[in-house]
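Backbone description:
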Amino acid sequence: MYHNLARNVTLQHRRILTNQRRYLKLSHNLCHGEYEWQDPKSEDEVVNITFIKKDGEKVKVRGKVGDNILYLAHRYEIPMEGACEASLACTTCHIYVKNEYLEKLNPPEEKEDDLLDLAPFLKENSRLGCQITLTKEMEGLEVELPKATRNFYVDGHTPKPH
C-alpha cells in the first residue's frame, strides 16, 4: 500500500511540474543585435570606438556600454559578416584589436581560441567581434578588419540585421 501511495504522489508531483512548465511569462525581449540599435540613454554610457575597414578607411562609431562589436558593426554598415549571427560557429567577425586594449578585454574562451586557429591571417591580437562587449574602459578602442575571412557557414551568406 505504501508503494502505491508513493507512486500516486510521484505521479501527481510530475503532473504539477509538467503543468508549471507550460506556463509562459510574456514580456518584451530584445532580439539578436536589437540592443545595439538603441541609442545611449546618457553620455555616461557612450563608448567611442573606431573600425578600420579592409581598405584602411577609419570609421568612428558611437557605441554604448553593453554593445556587442559585431552587431554594432552591422548598425553602422561596417562590412563585418558575422555569418553564424554570434553563435560562436564561424570566424567571419574576426578582427584585430589594437594592442593597448587587449588587456581591457575579457580573455577569450577556449571555443573562441579554437575557432581563431581556423581564421585566415591570424595574429596575436586576433579576436572574434561577436565575443567582445563594450565597457567604459574601452573608450577609444580601435579594431581592424582583416583583409579576408573564411565563411564556414554558407559560402557568400551575409546575414541582414533583423
Confidence is low (pLDDT under 50) at residues 1-18. The radius of gyration is 22 Å. Residues 2-22 form the longest helix (21 residues).
